[in-house]
Amino acid sequence: MQYGICVFRSRTETLLFSNFLRNNGIATAIVNTPKEAGQACGISVKFNLSSLEIVRSMLALRRYPSFAGMYKITSMGMRTSCERI
Question: Average pLDDT of the chain?
Answer without folding.
Answer: 93
